[in-house]
Amino acid sequence: MIKSINDVITLNNGVKIPQHGFGVYLIKEEEEGYNSINKALEVGYRSFDTAQLYENEKLLGKILSESGVKRSDLFITTKVADFNQGYDGTLRSVEQSLKDLKLDQIDLLLIHWPSKKHFFETWNALEKLYDEKLVRAIGVSNYEIHHLEELSSKSAIKPVINQVECHTYLTQEPLKDYLKDQSIAFEAWSPLGRGAILNDNVINKIANKYDKSIAQIVIRWHLQKGNIVIPKSSTPSRIEENANVYDFNLADDEIKVIDSLNKNQRNGNAPDDVYLKI
Ligand code: NAD
């Protein structure tokens, strides 16, 4: 059972990732960045999830490098944007990400969305970056089972992780079962459904029992289910709240009740729609 925000999951190449990280999507302004990222560090977060698309790699790199936290204690994920896909575009853009993040090595590099056009070239570029030790682990995001099958048919290295939309209204069980079989870790983006799942009456009852907020119950549900989770907030009190989920345990029947709220409801794009467009 996960006990603290420092607990890690071992990926299929031996690299360890904190199970509970901090997402920085939409944190672009300097003051907001300092307030939220420093607050996240203060309450114990060491894993940060950014992307080329978020236009905040430079800000994140600056704040983390000034923070005084040892590089080896941090875990930084970034993602190759759709417009940088292809072999050369990926290599060039990751060189820039390394500079912006002020890193010699990225901990985890993901392909942000599957692209039919650049499917293997982008992955081959990630494999090269991994071989050259510019990244410690490579993975994908927003891949469905058929994308993973296609990738495994012609690639040398298996992704360590698939980061996909997942919350209480989109529990992703079939994809999770497949990933487990393949030893690919499961990471949940929009773990709080961008706020859209936070008015649920069923979870509210469980929240009242533990004297916790709905957001805390949902994060704890993810953690007990083994999901890697990266909730985002730029409000310091919520950042603290979202980290404060280690003093209670949900019972198995409560986890099942939350599981049953699934309605396969996406807030973001469906991977196959993006796949055919980029
Ligand atoms: P999220 O589910 O983490 O929700 C964030 C929003 O929920 C906040 O903006 C706030 O409005 C609300 N919130 C957060 N904590 C709260 C609390 N304690 N009480 C009440 N409301 C609260 O959504 P997200 O930002 O979309 O996802 C998290 C991270 O996942 C992102 O920051 C990003 O790093 C990553 N992500 C990845 C992809 C991808 O395609 N790979 C897509 C979206 C997000």
| Strand composition percent | 5-15%
Helix tally equals 11
Q: Give the CA-CA distance, first to last residue.
A: 40 Å
Mean pLDDT: 97
User: How many DSSP E strands?
Assistant: 10
Please identify the oligomeric state: single chain
According to CATH, the fold-level topology is: TIM Barrel
What characteristic shape results from the CA principal axes? Answer: globular
> What is the H/E order?
EEEHEHEHEHEHEHEHHEHHH
**Which ligands accompany this protein?**
nicotinamide-adenine-dinucleotide
Q: If you had to describe this structure to a student in words, what would you say it looks like?
A:
- This protein has 278 residues and is an alpha/beta fold.
- The chain has one domain (8-275): Alpha-Beta Barrel (TIM Barrel).
- The chain is 41% helix and 13% strand.
- The protein has helices at residues 30-42, 57-66, 87-101, 119-131, 145-153, 173-181, 201-210, 214-224, 236-243, 252-259, 271-277; strands spanning 8-10, 16-18, 22-23, 47-49, 75-80, 108-111, 138-141, 161-165, 185-189, 228-229.
- The strands form two sheets. It has an eight-stranded parallel beta sheet. Strands 1-2 form a two-stranded antiparallel ribbon.
- Strand 5 (75-80), helix 3 (87-101) and strand 6 form a beta-alpha-beta unit.
- It is globular.
- It starts with 7 loop residues before the first strand and ends with a helix.
- The mean pLDDT is 97.
- Bound molecules: nicotinamide-adenine-dinucleotide (NAD).
- Residues 23-25, 49, 112, 141-142, 163, 189-195, 198, 213, 215, 230-233, 238, 241-242, 268 line the site of nicotinamide-adenine-dinucleotide.
